[in-house]
Specification:
The protein has 159 residues and is of the alpha+beta class. The chain has one domain (22-138). Helices cover 40% and strands 11% of the residues. A four-stranded mixed β-sheet has the order 2-1-3-4. The longest helix is centred in the last third of the chain and has 16 residues, at 115-130. It starts with 21 loop residues before the first strand and ends in a 21-residue tail after the last helix. The relative contact order is 0.20. The model is unreliable at 1-19 and 149-159 (pLDDT under 50).
């Protein structure tokens, strides 16, 4: 899993093709991701976010999303894209961007802009992503909700 701490530089020629401020790319095959998106949709009363399964980004007809899909790292972690500026953040930085976009999120903005907070967000995101199934269980999600991302098979296991 690659962890991207700083935001990517703006993509030249990036344009805004939707009326929302952020596009959230998540794994549509992951039950934990889908359940998280369900909650975010409910909390996003101002409709500032658009949610797109990462599996659709490559055929979206939106240059910045297609470029990200072609790079091949979308499945590593959640990505938040601001197509108006071309800024892309992933992992813990994406989580902070989502919190900032939610009602009341501006309260966290001064704290989230501090470098230690961004590093902490990345650490928390990495730990949470490694333990998705346990978190799903703790949050009372059904057993069939799981996330295939990051689940590796050990070739030496069973020898």
């Amino acid at each position: 899993m690659t962890i991207q701490t700083p935001p990517r530089p703006p993509v030249p020629g990036a344009d805004r093709t939707s009326g929302t401020s952020l596009t959230v790319l998540y794994d549509g095959g992951c039950g934990v991701c889908r359940d998280t998106v369900r909650h975010l949709r409910r909390w996003d009363r101002d409709a500032r976010m658009e949610f797109m399964p990462l599996q659709l980004a490559g055929t979206s007809g939106r240059p910045i999303l297609e470029r990200l899909a072609a790079e091949g790292h979308l499945g590593d972690e959640i990505h938040v894209v601001d197509e108006a500026t071309g800024q892309v953040v992933a992992g813990g930085h994406a989580a902070l961007a989502l919190l900032d976009a939610l009602p009341g999120g501006w309260l966290l903005r001064p704290w989230a802009s501090l470098p230690p907070a961004a590093m902490a967000a990345d650490v928390v995101y990495r730990v949470a992503s490694r333990h998705r199934d346990r978190l799903a269980w703790l949050m009372g999600m059904p057993n069939e909700i799981s996330c295939p991302v990051g689940q590796r098979t050990d070739p030496d296991k069973g020898r």
